[in-house]
Write a structure and sequence with these properties.
The complex is a heterodimer of chains A (about 400) and B (about 375).
Chain A (H helix, E strand, L loop, with lengths): L1 H16 L12 E4 L7 H15 L4 H18 L2 H11 L10 H13 L3 H14 L5 H12 L3 H11 L5 H14 L3 H13 L6 H17 L3 H13 L5 H13 L3 H7 L7 H13 L5 H18 L5 H11 L3 H14 L3 H14 L6 H10 L4 H12 L3
Helix pairs in contact in A: 1-16, 2-3, 3-4, 3-5, 4-5, 5-6, 5-7, 6-7, 7-8, 8-9, 9-10, 9-11, 10-11, 11-12, 11-13, 12-13, 13-14, 13-15, 14-15, 15-16, 15-17, 17-18, 17-19, 18-19, 19-20, 19-21
Chain B lengths: L1 H15 L7 E8 L5 E9 H8 L8 E3 H5 L2 H9 L2 E5 L2 E2 L1 E13 L2 E11 L7 E5 L10 E7 L10 E5 L5 E4 L6 H18 L1 H11 L4 E4 L2 E4 L3 H27 L7 H21 L6 H23 L6 H30 L3 H27 L7
Parallel strand pairs in B: 1-9
Antiparallel strand pairs in B: 1-2, 2-7, 4-5, 4-8, 6-7, 8-11, 9-10, 12-13
Helix pairs in contact in B: 5-10, 6-8, 6-10, 7-9, 7-10, 8-9, 8-11
The chains are: A mainly alpha (about 400), B alpha+beta (about 375).
């Protein structure tokens, strides 16, 4: 606690020290660009709904719709302010707790965003009780169970989804769980087949499935197939941060940093993608590498100041691969792994523990690797390195 | 001309590359000695102000300085209605001290308000209630730097975070003084040598033979207290000097060693020190061992200090305080140990039971530590 406080104090000093206010020379000078311009119809739409709400503050359905739209905006653009706006829209409903599935779904999404997984599961459960035919709460529950490595529960949700939506949702969900629990080969083969037979599916579903297939192919060392899946996913033309991040990681791993810089050009505003840019920039000695690293440092410091710990996986990768501070990276990775336990979270914990020469700290991830049967040669190598010298 | 163009391009890029971060406002509150006034600088994001006050009158998604400047009074009123300072139960009153200005932060341009709060009865305690934007964005935070009276230097300022869950917090009028910081770390230092059994056992193992002399391959009682005290002094000084050096270097981040190596070497040092007592191999040069292994023990103390955290504004003070605490704790052990050992030095109990038996026991315990630490025995594999 003291350490956190001291760190906060240290971080605050430059923030207040460098600030030098100014007065613009003329009234015509543009001092800020706002979201919701002509190129941002989704933001404009929700803005107009918000104006309607000012006239009808008691409209429950309007509140829920605004919350959902803000949350979707946050996901698409990676802008956390929108999550705050979404929370504010439904906050007045908390006391009455309406019997409305949409309310509980929106509430669950906001809770999982701030890593309140038990709360989110409860809300999403409530949503399903109120609207048993909705697939969204079920799919989000599956995703949360995956993050918490509750594979049995996740599989249960996958099965529950089957009658509620296009079968590929449930199939993809099931394959995702199986691929994490020792059946990678079979999961990949099955999902590949199901995907080709899926027929006409929404592009978002195709994007999700392609990304998962690409990741599985990569773990199976079938790099050409992984590349093909990523390319097909990109060709769908949907902007998706998670796809860009996953493909960026694949390119970095394949020693193709130059392509990462091209792929992610202009994406500096997203912490997650800026990290990939900084890593690629460092690998090819790009002139902008230092700027990118500096921006990231600033953002992680800003997050620490306000007490946010939402991007600790990225913070750990930054500290390990860019700052070269394995002990700090290990602290972030270990703290992150206490709440988020996806393979990527385990990987950074193993890597920082290996770099910091502290096998004991890697134990939760090593235990998971052994218990789940997760197959990935990169993780296997790390685990061997961490445990091998103790025999 | 070319320079001007480049600056323009750069500023456009800066707009385009705004980071996405949650909403924060930044406040600096500065109290003066013997005054009822608190000077406040408050930076609030224009984007947030537009969200609640619709500054973008022409709706073109771009804010001109005119659009912002003409609303300065609205902005100030909106903000000060959501920041309440109370001194001794009475509300402070707000005054604007300078026209609104702007400043750039990593996620965009902020309005800068310069205000003064007049608080009668400031000495009766100060409280702050912050509620800006919480109604439209519960994830908003107010990041406050509070400089209490009598502290011209920002060094003693306090960082506070105001959120929906902690909208009201006291602003402490007395900053922690340098002596308080020092004292706090002295206590930590004493405490950590006392609970650090490996350090204590190492030191005791080195001190056990100090009341004896080695004569023809057997231990004999030392003839004088003076000679024994000189031995003790040499060992303690060497150990202190060595671990102070590495503690300082490690705490300042100049050098670092993997904790596994440090911890296993510390355990090994205890084994060596204890085994040396059986044969007295090092003779009068025990202090050399104290120094060499003291260097490693310093890294061990540093990891404790790292867990505690060092206040950056009083780094040297805290470091010296911690060191002093470690020394005091050490001296307390020595002060208890030496008289007893000296009194008992002629007995067989001391020479066989304590020196030989005790050393063997210590060596055994430390060997167990060594194996545990070096091979990480608690691991799953």
């Amino acid at each position: 606690m003291l350490k956190l406080f001291a760190a906060g104090l240290l971080a605050l000093l430059p923030l207040f020290a460098h600030a030098a206010p100014f007065t613009p020379a003329s009234d015509a000078e543009i001092v800020e660009r706002l979201p919701g311009g002509a190129s941002d119809p989704a933001a404009r739409r929700v803005e107009s709904l918000r104006k309607q709400l000012a006239a009808r503050p008691g409209d429950v359905n309007l509140r829920i719709e605004i919350a959902r739209r803000y949350f979707d905006l946050a996901m698409a653009q990676g802008d956390p302010r929108y999550v705050g706006y979404a929370a504010a829209a439904i906050a007045p409903l908390e006391k009455t707790a309406p019997e409305d599935a949409g309310y509980w779904l929106a509430r669950g999404l906001i809770q999982q965003y701030s890593h309140d997984f038990p709360g989110a599961l409860k809300s999403l459960q409530r949503a399903s009780e109120l609207e048993p035919d909705a697939y969204e709460p079920v799919s989000w529950r599956a995703a949360i169970h995956m993050v918490q490595t509750n594979y049995k529960d996740a599989l249960g949700e996958c099965t529950r989804m089957l009658p509620l939506a296009h079968p590929l949702y449930a199939q993809g969900c099931t394959a995702y769980v199986n691929a994490a629990t020792g059946n990678l080969n079979q999961a990949y083969a099955t999902l590949s087949k199901q995907f080709t037979q899926a027929g006409d599916i929404p592009p978002e579903l195709a994007l999700w499935t392609r990304t998962r297939l690409a990741e599985m192919a990569n773990r199976l060392q079938q790099f050409d197939q992984a590349e093909a899946h990523f390319q097909a996913a990109l060709a769908l033309g949907i902007t998706d941060q998670f796809l860009l991040a996953a493909y960026g990681d694949f390119l970095l791993q394949q020693q193709r940093p130059q392509e990462v810089i091209k792929l992610l050009a202009g994406w500096e505003r997203s912490d997650v993608l800026l990290l990939r840019l900084a890593l690629a920039g460092k690998a090819v000695n790009d002139g902008r590498a230092r700027t990118w690293a500096g921006q990231l440092r600033e953002r992680f410091e800003a997050a620490a100041r306000r007490g946010d710990r939402l991007h600790e996986q990225e913070a750990a990768r930054f500290e390990l691969d860019i700052e070269g501070k394995p002990h700090q990276a290990l602290a972030s990775a270990a703290h992150n792994y206490a709440t988020q336990k996806e393979p990527r979270d385990a990987e950074i914990l193993l890597r920082s523990a290996a770099a910091a020469n502290d096998a004991r700290a890697a134990r939760p991830a090593l235990d998971w690797l052994k218990a789940s049967g997760y197959e990935d040669p990169a993780l296997g190598k790390l685990a061997a390195q961490l445990t091998g010298d103790r025999k | 001309m070319k320079r001007f163009l480049m600056a323009l391009v750069a500023s456009v890029l800066a707009f385009a590359a705004h980071a996405h971060k949650p909403s924060d406002s930044y406040l600096t509150l500065r109290a003066a000695q013997n005054s009822s006034e608190i000077a406040v600088r408050w930076d609030i994001a224009l984007r947030d102000l537009d969200y609640v006050l619709e500054l973008d009158r022409d709706g073109n998604a771009a804010l001109s300085w005119g659009e912002v400047r003409t609303r300065a009074d609205d902005i100030t009123r909106y903000a000060t209605e959501r920041l309440a300072l109370t001194a001794g139960g009475e509300s402070c009153t707000w005054q604007t001290t300078a026209p609104m200005q702007l400043d750039r932060h990593s996620d965009g341009t902020y309005a800068v308000l310069s205000l003064t709060a007049r608080c009668e009865g400031l000495q009766r305690g100060l409280k702050m209630n912050y509620s800006l934007l919480f109604d439209v964005d519960p994830s908003h935070r107010g990041l406050v730097q509070w400089v209490p009276p009598g502290n011209a230097a920002d060094a003693s300022s306090q960082a506070l975070v105001f959120g929906t869950g902690n909208a009201e917090q006291p602003l402490a009028l007395q900053p922690q003084s340098a002596w308080q910081t020092f004292g706090q770390y002295v206590v930590e230092g004493v405490w950590h040598i006392w609970i650090g059994f490996d350090h204590i056992l190492f030191l005791l193992s080195l001190l056990l033979p100090a009341v004896l002399v080695r004569v023809s391959r057997s231990w004999q009682p030392a003839p004088s207290l003076k000679g024994s005290l000189i031995e003790v002094l040499k060992v303690v000084t060497a150990f202190t000097l060595a671990h102070s050096i590495t503690l300082t270097l490690a705490a300042l981040g100049v050098i670092s060693l993997p904790s596994r190596i440090v911890e296993s070497t510390i355990a090994a040092s205890v084994v060596f020190a204890a085994l040396n007592n059986l044969r007295g191999t090092l003779g009068k040069r025990v202090w050399v061992m104290a120094f060499v292994f003291g260097l490693i023990h310093g890294f061990g103390f540093a990891s404790v200090l790292a867990d505690l955290g060092l206040p950056q504004q009083a780094l040297a003070l805290a470091l010296v305080g911690f060191n002093v605490g470690v020394e005091l704790g050490q001296l307390a052990i020595v002060a208890v140990f030496v008289p007893i050992a000296f009194a008992l030095r002629r007995t067989a109990f001391y020479r066989t039971g304590v020196l030989t038996g005790g050393s063997l026991l210590v060596a055994l315990i430390a060997s167990y530590w060594f194996i545990q630490r070096a091979f990480d025995l608690q691991g799953p594999f």
